[in-house]
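Lay summary

Proteins are chains of building blocks that fold into shapes. Our project writes down both the chain and a compact code for its shape. Here are two examples, one after the other.
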Amino acid sequence: MEAKYSRTDLLLGEDEARWLRKQTVTIVGIGAVGGYALEGLARVGINHFRLVDFDTVSASNINRQIHALESTIGVRKIDIAKKRVLDINPCCTVDLYPEFVCSDTVAKLLRHPTAILVDAIDSLSPKLALLEEAYRLNMPVVSSMGAALRTDPTKIRVADLMETCKCPLAKHVRKKLRRRDIGTGITAVFSSEDVIFDYHKQKQVDGEDTRQFRGRQRNTLGSLPTLTGIFGLTVANTVILKLLESYRTMVSSQC
């Protein structure tokens, strides 16, 4: 039993923990939610990550993103993330994809097998393109909905995307995916906290430096580091449980 994973092994058992560490997880969006999701999964010992993000750290990221520091402003998020993961687990394989997700790139980004996909994108069109492609590929997904504007961590929920409620982003995603003949099967982390926000009102880019910006302008929304962090760790926990469920199903089918 390796010391740094001993607490996980004691909880799950060595067989399940060892199998868990052999899985590949793809995370798209290494920002507030995605960064904390990666942190939780790296510390449980996942040995292979594929990280997708084209963006660099800006000063406005510091209030909520685990990789954002004064010393990392201007650095690619995936480069910082890889360095941190390897400091946690030097044996980990971390593949980097500095790509913008859209209908033209998503097939290439998802062409490699992965045990599960984490969607931590905060822009609607790229999110839709990613979820549609993953659905067509029958790829297991844990998708984060809106973490901004919330203050109550007890309202964070995990459910099928089509059963989410009170989340403006989830509402738009559900509606547009249904138009693409996509139904149940996408796991979502969302908040049932009441928020007042109209996605059709004026929009502006998040952050002072817009040179790396692509796609439609995003809403600049207020957020707490606590809520986005809890969102990300809830995503990580959901991934762990789903992977363990698949392992137990596989074992029981062999008995």
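And here is the second example, written the same way.
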Amino acid sequence: MPNWMTESLKYLIRCLAAMALVLLGVASITFVVTRLLGNPVYLLVGQRADQEIIDNMIHRMGLDRPLTEQYVRYLGTIMTGDLGTSRVTQRAVWFEIQLRLPATLELVLAAMLLIILVAIPLGVIAAARPGGVVDRGSQIVAQLGVSVPSFWVGLIFVYLFFFRLPWFPAPLGRLGPTLSPPPTLSGLFTVDSLLTGNWALFWSALHHLALPAITLALASAPSTYQITRTTLLQILRSEYVRTARAYGLPSRAIYLRYALKNVVVPVVTMLAMTFGYLMSSTVLVETVFTWPGLGLFAVTSMQQLDYEPILGVVFLSALFYVLAYLAADLIAFAIDPRIRGH
């Protein structure tokens, strides 16, 4: 086997081992925390149920077994792809997640698109002209995005652009009340309505998506902007860029051939971190905008002390997080020869 293939295989094995340990840790912590929330039996049978009914329900749900046994059974079901059954809806958790995952993915992907289209170009322009108007303005916006909670931004947006200025629809879902969802192709309403040529549905879906996506993007765009600006600024002040300028290379060639190429790895890593963060932090935004995704599902399940959906949503969010990190590591390994040398 060639040396580069051996090194690639070792690197992949290390990444997968780290991924498995992270998921095990997340599953363990979530299991313990959910058991500390309280007993869901009283919510299911009511406070006035007699003790016999309560004991039978506890036995049927397996809550009378030792925690170690419950934990081992939980890990076993996860390894087989079974996330359990919701004790409130009496439906499989994976089925409930499949119903809501497209809504969360659509929201996160829209926020990621905004971050890529706005934060990265602003970071490049700010680094090219430090102290300029774009640099100062984007720094102010970035500081506001970091310091202001996303749920507060969402509430302000709802007040301004729905209540005071009716530019956007009521924060009550993904479509207008008179419209039906498009045929399910990808689960993303904006994409499915485009694929089916339903322009009225597309504009309604886009209109409902705009405010929550902007709210979610504002909280995460500053980190991508800052890493782009800082890294590119360091590269432009480096010795090899100064040497290239001294040899008379045009600025366009310096930016494209030397500067931007070296920004790719840290920016891709930050985007992967951002994607994982967004997948696990949509709870507040989805609650504010009544967006029917995984975040709102987790909040509802927590209010009902429904263990299995909480465990399933948290575990799935962690899985997205580590998969995003894995993709970033593999891209960095393929691009940066310095990583392959270690």
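What can we say about the second shape? The chain has a mean pLDDT of 78.
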